[in-house]
Design a protein that fits this description.
Number of helices: 12
Helix content: 25-40%
Bound molecules: adenosine-5'-diphosphate, magnesium ion
Largest sheet: 6 strands, mixed
Order of helices and strands: EEEHEEHHEHHHEHEHEEHEHEEEHH
Strand order of the largest sheet: 6-7-8-3-9-10
Structural class: alpha/beta
CATH superfamily of the largest domain: P-loop containing nucleotide triphosphate hydrolases
Number of strands: 14
Shape: globular
Distance between the termini: 51 Å
Length: about 300
């Protein structure tokens, strides 16, 4: 099983939303991490054959996915970022409806839906109308509909959007469970969604793949160090101007700053081990504007 992107490019007028991406995926969980506008959705839509690349190609086991067409889509499950549903349908009827569109026989569909409802924790809510579901429940039904055809390739675009912290934990467990024997690609701009479940993380910025690897590899790639500095309140804005600050914790008459820097940025600075959050800030982060910080406090 191999899904391969070769120098994929997609432009919208003058904007290059996806810029020469090459990457190969096998079984396992892949986390596509990037800020809004990075090009994640555009990349995923191409991987789902919903959009043709301007140049480059995507192959499944060596064959172009646009040539495989329906044969490829049979292997595919997709949860779009904006996931449309039918408000008056019950959860069960909605899933039966999608199953029929996907060409599942009713007896197969019924069995499959039972399994999925239980996997996503929606068995009890099966008769609820779609419009009555919470954000988290809707996403779970969204994942169930993407899983109906038991896809080899599962593509989830921002599946954690709008989930509360408890739902996020449930979701991570669910993805780990579903990823057995398939390829899962999920996009997010939240580090903790994928830190522990993704086998590989892809950092996407301005249409390009900045870096990819395991969480450990990405953390190890930061060429600077992480320091803990205790500073006075009056010094905070100067540090914000000079350094990349990955965290601020206010303490009595001052703050503890988590500073990314080659050299020690303050007296008595304490070296800390880097995390994926630090890497995210290092690769994506702008030095915060002073006003932005002032506005926060
Ligand atoms: N259909 C479109 N027409 C024009 N511009 C688009 C279209 N879709 C996306 N874009 C632009 O392409 C860039 C990447 O968007 P997108 O792939 O949605 O990023 P992400 O999913 O990472 O937020 C953005 O600047 C966005 O405004
Ligand atoms: Mg998107």
């Amino acid at each position: 099983m191999e899904l391969k992107m070769n120098t994929l490019t997609k432009e919208f007028q003058t904007l290059r939303a996806v810029n020469g991406i090459s990457y190969t995926m096998h079984n396992g969980v892949y986390g596509l991490l990037g800020v809004n506008g990075a090009g994640k959705t555009t990349l995923m839509r191409m991987l789902c054959t919903l959009m043709k690349p301007d140049s480059g190609s995507i192959t499944w086991n060596g064959v172009d996915i646009f040539k495989l067409d329906g044969e490829y889509r049979k292997l595919l499950g997709y949860l779009p970022q904006e996931f449309g549903f039918y408000p008056e349908f019950s959860v069960y009827d909605y899933l039966m409806y999608i199953a029929s569109i996907k060409g599942l026989r009713p007896t197969t569909a019924k069995k499959r839906i039972e399994t999925l409802l239980s996997q996503v924790g929606m068995s009890k809510a099966r008769n609820k109308k779609m419009k009555k579901l919470s954000g988290g429940m809707k996403r779970r039904v969204g994942i169930a509909q993407a899983m109906l055809n038991d896809p080899k390739i599962l593509i989830l675009d921002e599946p954690t959007a709008g989930l509360d912290p408890n739902e996020r934990i449930r979701f991570r467990n669910l993805i780990s469970e579903l990823s057995e024997d398939r390829m899962v690609l999920l996009s997010t701009h939240i580090v903790s969604d994928i830190e522990y479940i993704a086998n590989e993380i892809l950092l996407m910025k301005d249409g390009s793949l900045t870096l990819s690897g395991t969480a450990e590899e990405i953390i190890a790639s930061i060429p600077e160090k992480i320091w803990n500095c205790t500073v006075f309140k009056s010094e905070i804005s100067n540090y914000m101007k000079q350094y990349k600050i990955s965290n601020i914790k206010t303490v009595a008459d001052g703050a503890q700053l988590r500073v990314i820097s080659l050299e020690s940025p303050c007296e008595h600075a304490v070296l800390e081990s880097a995390t994926l959050e630090d890497a995210f800030l290092y690769y994506f982060g702008e030095k915060a504007e002073v006003n932005e910080y002032d506005a926060e406090i």
